[in-house]
Amino acid sequence: EEYFTRLNQTEPLLKSFLHVSENVMRDAEEIDKKIARNEELGILAGVLVGVKDNLCTLNMPSTGGSRILENYRPPFDATAVRMVRERDAILIGKTNMDEFGMGSSTEASSFQITANPWDVSRVPGGSSGGSSAAVAARQCAVSLGSDSGGSVRQPASFCGVVGLKPTYGRVSRYGLMAYASSMDAVGCFASSVMDAAILLRAISGHDTQDATSCKCEVPDYTTELVPKDLLGSEPLKGLRVGVIRETLGDGVDTGVTSTIQAAASHLEEIGCTVTEVSLSSFSLGLPSYYILASSEASSNLSRYDGVRYGNQVLADELRSLYGVSRANGFGPEVKRRILMGTYALSAGYYDQYYKRAQQVRTLVQKSFKKALGEHDILISPAAPTTAYKIGEKVDDPLAMYAGDIMTVNVNLAGLPALVLPCGFVQSGDVGLPVGLQLIGSAFDEAKLLRVGHIFE
Ligand code: GLN
């Protein structure tokens, strides 16, 4: 009831949700009944979870933020959604997002723009802006998002919450609407690292429905976290932290840089060995990501043809039916990506763009491997700026893309990364949160959570 009261008060201003479940109270009563029957409860019993609208859900619409799927109700749950339900969580609703995950501000949603709870004239980040705003405003306890190039970490940074992008393969993608399949990952939003650890454990593991999901064991992340009262014993002593040189300085707000530097000093104070590390291919990540993500999107989105999937607009013959259904259903950013991707993949340009971008991807992977051989974790800002004003970048796609510089490399390499709030930059009379990004080796989420937890 408390969450609902807050949701009703804040939602008219924030617009985090595209759909609020009618069954929340009924689901809560089911849990009460289980308690009365002395049944064992799941780890998420009674926890209100918001779900990004590109994750398929039974009994609720799933639009992916797109007109083309308006009113679509999937006949199944995404694996991550099924897993939270099986652990007795209550789904509060579906959160707003940039159409199919393409965007960094939620302004590319077909339906509404979500506001940042810290300053409603600003964006919450994207594409999982609804999920991050909902947790920041405590409209729900935790939420699920997706991160193909930063869509969990950048909005977590803008909204001052914890955001976790797991290793590629850690969480099943089954039921996540495909954008850039080689980089898509289901991720978690929470108001503490402990909550993120609990949620990650709940959704991780092998799934026969996703051939890229990993068979490796899922640790109990919560038991790996160091209790706060052991802080005096310097539990992080000797941990080697690398500050990525290319992420501080030119093109990064001075307030963001100084906040991250202060975070690095704090890690040093608590016993870590902090040094600078250079990732030489860092700046190449952005063009490589946008070529690969658009290429994969152009192929993945061909399923929305008004016949197999997507709302249909009738026409005289089949080809025009495809054409008008897609022209009508997709928004401008999605069309731009399909055009860019189709161009990059076309016969005459394949070597010049797609193949080149794949070669760059290998370089990025190698430079992370080297840096993570010499350091236990790497740190950087999660975004070069704090949350910007609604409308500020909407007419300048390149400026919008450039804001993803801190996050896309991690997806190219498939690595896990945790973002947590580590300070504020004053803007007029509001303080805007700054997120610290911790990057680790594949399947070593436990270490990131351990460091992040101590940091809180
Ligand atoms: N902003 C990036 C893009 O538009 C990343 C999106 C994402 O991670 N889904 O592609």
UniProtKB/TrEMBL annotation:
It catalyses: L-glutamyl-tRNA(Gln) + L-glutamine + ATP + H2O = L-glutaminyl-tRNA(Gln) + L-glutamate + ADP + phosphate + H(+). The keyword Nucleotide-binding applies. Subunit of the heterotrimeric GatCAB amidotransferase (AdT) complex, composed of A, B and C subunits. This protein may be expected to contain an N-terminal transit peptide but none has been predicted. One of its GO terms (molecular function) is ATP binding. The gene is GATA. Its EC number is 6.3.5.7. Residues 1-449 form the Amidase domain. It is an enzyme of class 6 (ligase). Its main location: mitochondrion. Belongs to the amidase family. GatA subfamily. GO terms for cellular component: chloroplast stroma; glutamyl-tRNA(Gln) amidotransferase complex; mitochondrion. It is found in: Mitochondrion; Plastid, Chloroplast stroma. One of its GO terms (biological process) is mitochondrial translation. This is Glutamyl-tRNA(Gln) amidotransferase subunit A, chloroplastic/mitochondrial. Keywords: ATP-binding, Chloroplast, Ligase, Mitochondrion, Nucleotide-binding, Plastid, Protein biosynthesis. The active site is at 52 (charge relay system), 127 (charge relay system), 151 (acyl-ester intermediate). It comes from Amborella trichopoda. The chain holds residues 76 to 531 of 549 of the full protein. Allows the formation of correctly charged Gln-tRNA(Gln) through the transamidation of misacylated Glu-tRNA(Gln) in chloroplasts and mitochondria. The reaction takes place in the presence of glutamine and ATP through an activated gamma-phospho-Glu-tRNA(Gln).
